[in-house]
Amino acid sequence: MPATEQQPADAAPGTPRGARRRISVRALLLLVGIAVVVYGIDQLTKFLIASGMREGQEIEVLGPILKLRYITNSGAAFSFANGYTWAFSIVAVGVIVAIIWFARRIRSLAWATMFGLVLAGALGNLTDRLFRPPGFGVGHVVDFIAIEPFPAIFNVADIAITCSMALFILLSLRGTGLDGSKAVIRKPKAPAAADVPSAEAEPPAEQHAAPKD
Description:
Blueprint: H1 25-52, E1 58-62, E2 66-73, H2 85-102, H3 109-131, E3 141-147, E4 153-154, H4 156-174
Antiparallel strand pairs: 1-2, 2-3, 3-4
Helix pairs in contact: 1-3, 2-3, 3-4
């Protein structure tokens, strides 16, 4: 018998062969576009803050509610876990590689937006860790946005990461797949009326053998 070509295990019934392997150009362009724009804004704002303010300086924007407060940190987003710069650099590289790997599978514009924000945030803070003092891989991240009464100071890359996590939770709760399909929850099928025994049905009458002469 001639060998038959099988569809991928994740292909939906009726999907043409190879359709699941095609790259969505729109989703890929959206992912890259968001990553480039947000990364550019992050690096531009950090450059302006670092070149126009001294470390520790504070400027009020909206009174005591919103301030520009220039600090540097060696930790993760929002100045958490200081002192683990190398670890976060390695994690950021892993995240970037994973996004590049999964990019060819993304067909949902919502998921492309989420991954674009993650990529921009990871690249933004990784750039600081690689090229800012005190050295390569251990550079301190520039933070400058302070909102009262929020205790941490953050930057544009941190905002991108936070928004991406919120979008990730929303898409997961809605059951949206990377290809844009929705998870189908199948309810148990109700038994047919013919399969349900009737409470009023009478038991079959006992048959007695006719007496022999």
